[in-house]
């Protein structure tokens, strides 16, 4: 049986993708989990998509637009979207309040 671990926000690896402030909490052989924070009027960079896994975005707070290769989807607090393997995507916040998104990718691109 595996070890139970708690990862605090200060222990997460922080990085930026454009204006999108990301925190990587967990990366194992089976899953990657993190968060993205986006201020009003800001946007992240284009993620070209993942080779092996589907990604899920869950909007914890606020609203965002998720732009894909052929369409865009407006997401609000409580919404989730499943991003197919290989699908480019980008988060945009054209709304008045900041947005917090949780994301997970399984299995990860190694």
General description of the model:
- This protein is an all-beta fold.
- It has a domain at 63-101.
- The chain is 0% helix and 50% strand.
- It is built from no helices and 9 strands.
- The protein has strands spanning 13-17, 20-27, 32-38, 54-61, 63-68, 72-76, 80-83, 89-92, 99-106.
- A 6-stranded antiparallel β-sheet has the order 1-2-3-9-4-7, with no helix packed on it.
- A hairpin with a 2-residue loop joins strand 1 (13-17) and strand 2.
- The radius of gyration is 14 Å and the shape is globular.
- The two termini are 23 Å apart.
Spatial shape: globular
What is the N-to-C order of secondary-structure elements (H for helix, E for strand)? EEEEEEEEE
Strand order of the largest sheet: 1-2-3-9-4-7
Distance between the termini: 23 Å
Mean pLDDT: 96
SS-based class: mainly beta
How are the elements arranged and paired?
Blueprint: E1 13-17, E2 20-27, E3 32-38, E4 54-61, E5 63-68, E6 72-76, E7 80-83, E8 89-92, E9 99-106
Antiparallel strand pairs: 1-2, 2-3, 3-9, 4-7, 4-9, 5-6, 5-8
Supply the key terms.
110 residues; mainly beta; 6-stranded antiparallel beta sheet; 3-stranded antiparallel beta sheet; globular
Gist?
This protein has 110 residues and is mainly beta. The chain contains no helices and nine strands. The mean pLDDT is 96.
């Amino acid at each position: 049986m595996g070890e139970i671990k708690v990862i605090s926000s200060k222990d997460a690896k922080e990085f930026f993708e454009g204006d999108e402030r990301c925190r990587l909490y967990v990366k194992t052989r089976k899953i990657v989990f993190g968060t993205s924070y986006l201020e009003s009027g800001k946007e992240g960079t284009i993620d070209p998509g993942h080779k092996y896994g589907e990604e899920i975005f869950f909007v914890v707070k606020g609203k965002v637009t998720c732009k894909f290769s052929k369409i865009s989807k407006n997401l609000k607090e409580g919404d989730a979207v499943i991003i197919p393997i290989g699908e480019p995507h980008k988060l945009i916040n054209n709304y008045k309040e900041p947005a917090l998104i949780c994301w997970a990718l399984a299995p990860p691109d190694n």
